[in-house]
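Field guide to reading this record: the first block holds the primary sequence, the second block holds the structure written as discrete tokens, and the final block holds curator observations. Each block starts with its own label. This record concerns MFS transporter, catalogued under organism Candidatus Eubacterium faecale.

BLOCK 1 — SEQUENCE
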Amino acid sequence: MAGKSTLTKKKKTGYAFGIFTESLIYNMFYTYYLTFLIEIAGIKPAFSSIIIFISIAWDAVTDPMIGNYTDRPGVDKRKVMKTALVPLGLVFVIAWTSIGSGLSSQLAKILLYTFITMCLWVFYTMYTIPYYAVVAEITEDYDERTEIRSFSSLLNAVAVGLGNILPALVPTVAILLTPRFESNAYAVVAAIISIMAIAFGFVCCNSLKGVYEPKKAAPGESVGSIKDTFKAFGNILRMKPAKYFLVFVFFFLATSSMIQSNLSYMVIDCIGMDYDTGIVAVIISLVISMAVVVPLVEKVAHKKDRRFAAIVFLSVACIGEILIKIIGLDAEIGGFKIMCVVAPVVLGIGTGTFWTLFYSMGYDLVELDEFKTGTRKESTITALPQLVQKFGSAFGILMAGLLLGAYGYDSSGDIAGSESLIQRVTDPDIINGMENISTVIPAAMLFVSIIFVILYPMTRQRFEALMVQLKKKRNGEPYTTEGFEKLL
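BLOCK 2 — STRUCTURE
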């Protein structure tokens, strides 16, 4: 393994910029794609959520295959990341075109957009699996891992803002494109985001020069197979911390993706603001809250540990979601719609906390698995939480779409191809349902997530005890399990 020493600030910064590639695409997709499929492509809400569920579930299936490949000796994670960048950008633009809006068959639209988004997520995974896995290879230091991820999360706040604010310009872009081409306004914004994503991706890859080297195969060492990967998944799932960690991941991502995919409807119908001004206010508040909470989470994690920080800040977010429902998303103070600030701040506390701690918590499983099996599987262990992450995200979006339909929302009155012509809902029952999708339903799932963080046994003290004994085992010295028995 390369690079056990402390990384330079320049290298950490270059690596952290790679979060823009992942986050710009991720956030535009999760916030707007359900709305795009319903309003622009003209696909019914339930079917739209199924498209997203299938494509993300497919992405989860490809995770172990890509993780297995990038874990093989001789495979250069940097080259895999570089290879994915241009195709990722191109397919992302295609996914937002209105090529399917003119089709009369719902089935034809479903098949078309399902295929496109399945391709999108393959290239996305080719970039993200090695991007996140490489940190476990370049440093084993508990605090340095937290520092790298927290700085990346701080930049992620900017990426979240860009990934959400730029698509808010769609109505303006549509006017500039004239009625003939306005249905492709999303694609124009997607092209801008793709160019940025590709550029930042190359910056990240170049920053890894000199601090990362591909694993070298030992004489007679197997390169591994997909069967070996699933066997490794089985071994990981038998580790006590992994079980609790993965359930925590699933329910948090279900929570955040449900809220995020319902954001447009929350702004227009629940808060009662114009789309243009409302979505910008929401996203700016979200970004600022993330930027504030990330260093606080890092400080608490350094002082105590990551588990404690997750419990504290996610509990605040859960209580906040419940209070928002009690007060109401349409609350005003002096005519100002306060929930365009409060609701995204609460969401930002949760997302800022999760993305600061998620991957660094997962990295700790690499050493535990190495202690048990004698081998390091950084990409495979990164792939498993990502697999669960994507199923959680897909589940949240699926539930949002199904619930929109169940509450009676029908977009047939809207004009396909123009985001600005979404009609505001007046039925109080539908509005109440939309409010539930953004508050109490995700709050219930977040509560489950917090329970499993509490049960998660990987503390700083136990990790440090594990590392002492793992180093002895690597050196062929006698070792014990003293101090981390609860991890086994």
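BLOCK 3 — OBSERVATIONS
The chain has one domain: 14-214+226-457.
The radius of gyration is 22 Å.
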